[in-house]
Every structure is written in C-alpha cells, then in structure tokens.
Amino acid sequence: MPTVNTPALRGSRILGFGHHQPARILTNDELSTMVDTNDEWIRTRTGIETRHIAGPDDTVTSMAVEAGRRALADAGIEPAAVGLVIVASTTHRDRAPYTAGRVAAALGLSPAAAPIDINTACSGFEYGVGLADQAIRVGSADVALVIGSEVLSGIVDWTDRSTCVLVGDGAGAAVLGASDTAQIGPVSWGSVPHLEEAVLVSGDPERFTQEGRSIYRWAITEAADHARAAVAAAGMTLDDIEVFAFHQANLRIIEPLVTALGGESKYVVRDVVESGNTSAASVPLGLSKAWARGELPEGVPALLFGFGGGFAHAGQVVTTPVRRH
Ligand code: ACO
Predict the structure, then answer these.
(1) Which residue in 126, 258, 272, 286 has its CB near the most CB atoms, within 10 A?
(2) Active site members
(3) Total of domains in the chain
C-alpha cells in the first residue's frame, strides 16, 4: 500500500491565551433579591461569589471573536497564519452560519482555514485542544485557534434557584502552533452512559437543567481516575504536574479532585469563584485570566480536565506558554 505524506514527528504547543467577559457582574447578594437564595448557601455549596452576565451586544460569536483576537495578539500570530479554528459551545443560537465560520470571517482568517464548531458541552475545550493537536501533528494546520464561548444566562431559568445561581457567560481561547517536540499530550476522552441525560439543554424555550447530585457524586468518585489517565497518556506522573485546570463547575468538586491527585501545593485554577460555571469556556477562561494576571507558571506541565453534558469528559497535559517578552 502507498504511504501518505505527513510531517515527521512533530507535535504542538500552546503559544498564547485570550479571554473576554461581559462587563455586567452579578453578585450573590443581587441574586438573592431575584430568587429565594442567599450568599452563604451559594458560597458554601459552590464557592461562587460573582458571575458575568451578557448584555445585548455580548453573543457567543462576539465573545469568541474578542477572546480569539486577544489570544492571537498574545501569541504574536497573524490571523492569516491560522489554519484551523474550533469553537466549542453549547449555547450558539444558529446552526448556520455556525460560530467558527463567523469567527473566521470576523478575525480575517485565511479562506484556507478550516472553521469547525463542536459541542461536547463543558468538556468542549479539551476536545477542541485534542482535535487541534492532532490536526497539527498530521500537517492539516500549522496554527490552530481553539475557543470556548458560552452565553448560559440565555438558557437558564431565572426563577429556578437550583440552576440560575451557578452559571455565567464568557469566552476563553488558546492558540496552538506546530512544535518540534510534543508539548500537548494525547487527549484522554470518553463518556459516562448512565449519566447521558444528567445535563440537558432542551425544550422550547431551551432550558439548562441538571441532576446536580448524580454529577457531583461522579465527579468526586470517578473523575480523578480519568484525570490520572490523561497524565499517564502523556508519559508523566502527577508529581510532574504544576498546574491543575479543571472544569469550573463547583469549588466543592475542584478541591477534592486536587486533593485526590495530590496537587495541594501546585497552582490550581479557581476562577469559578469570580466567573461561575461557563461550561466550555471555563477552563480557557480561567487559564487566560491567570496568564493575564501573571500568575500562571510558565513552561510547565498543566493538567486540563473537563466534564459535563453528554455525559462527556476529556483531559490532557499541556505545557503552559512562555512569555515572549
Ligand atoms: N439557594 C438556597 N437553597 C437552595 C438553592 C439556592 N440557590 N438551590 C437549591 N437549594 C436547596 C434545595 O432546595 C435543597 O433544599 P431541601 O434540602 O430543603 O430540599 C437544598 O438546597 C439542597 O439542594 P441540592 O440540590 O441537594 O444541593 P447540593 O448540595 O447537591 O448542591 C449543586 C447543588 C451545587 C448543583 C451540586 O449538586 C453540584 O455542584 N453538582 C455538580 C454540578 C456539575 O458539576 N455540573 C457539571 C455539568 S453541567 C455544566 O457545567 C453546565
């Protein structure tokens, strides 16, 4: 059989981050004037203190464009160099034109760039990084932009205290580029069939509902093994990991996961406190904010892990970027 041509032994790495959040910040105290809740319940059960809520001009597309633009500027990459843009979201309103196409047009990407939307809910960013890494490895693109963007405030029932206190809006993005050495490990992915219906975005009007208790139980009993699988797939041990960036759904899930993985002394992304649950945006948003504040350790292994609707999960080890100046 003839052999097809792929670049020999190349990998990819993260070159930069960007994010965008709407200006409007909604506090727990303000929420308690809208539904029967209080700051103490929300903080002790979830860790959330504030969340950003989209205004009339903030859409999945507009926030993805802004996060993508900032990530490209951070990476020092011209839009024309991007060969693939992946937008992960559960809340884009239109099936066509889909969000990645709109983002590609708004950012002035090359007509040769592939625009792809994916929807694996809260693990969308990790799926996107996995797909982009593989596209770069085989030579389908030299640079990829991976974005998570969500307007969850548009699909939440603002009279349902069990869900409306949890969510926020925003976008986060990463630029991936080809690298002589692999700086992104194999994605370790899968699903949980018995939780298939545990997270729903359905109905007319569409509404987000979830079986919070079942997901919580799975997250604190099963998720650590899946996160370990991602570390093993990278040929590393947990001691090698310097940054933990898990889906920002609940601090009461993040903390036990970090403890189970022995990561208490490492840098842990805890953006859920400021941003609430932003589904596919949560991991890149948290990483990008930490990067922008100068807190994210540079050039070190970071474990990403997402889980949620589907019920899908995915994780991988990536090397954090190194500042250009
Ligand atoms: N304020 C005050 N009381 C409340 C509120 C609120 N906002 N919401 C619920 N309660 C009450 C309930 O009515 C219930 O009262 P009762 O005991 O009198 O019946 C009590 O608080 C306990 O409710 P539970 O739902 O059992 O609370 P729990 O401790 O399980 O916390 C939570 C709920 C935060 C959703 C938790 O289960 C969780 O985080 N689960 C995991 C969610 C997750 O990770 N999802 C990821 C995928 S989806 C996505 O990311 C978009």
Answers:
(1) 126
(2) 122, 247, 277
(3) 2
Point out the ligand 1 atom lying closest to the alpha carbon of residue 213.
Answer: 37
Ligand 1, atom 32: closest residue by C-alpha? 212
**Residue 175 shares a structural domain with residue 192:** no
In the predicted model, is pLDDT for residue 2 greater than 90?
Answer: no
Q: Are strands 188-191 and 312-319 parallel, antiparallel or unpaired?
A: antiparallel
Q: How far is the CA of 209 from the centre of ligand 1 (A)?
A: 11
The answer, as to whether pTM is greater than 0.90, is: yes
Question: Would you say residue 118 lies in a domain?
Answer: yes
Give the domain extent around 233.
188-319
The DSSP H or E segment spanning 67 is: helix 60-75
State the SS3 of 10-65: CEEEEEEEEEECCCEEEEHHHHCCCCCCCHHHHHHHHCCCEEEECCCCCCHHHHHH
The phi-psi region of residue 118 (left if phi > 0; otherwise alpha if psi is between -120 and 50; otherwise beta) is beta
Q: Is the CB of 164 under 6 A from ligand 1?
A: no
The CB of 277 under 6 Å from ligand 1? The reply is yes
**Does one domain contain both 168 and 282?**
no
Is 167 contained in some domain? yes
Q: Is the dihedral of CA 100, 286, 307, 23 positive or negative?
A: negative
- Average pLDDT for 95-102: 94
* 213 and 89 fall within a common domain: no
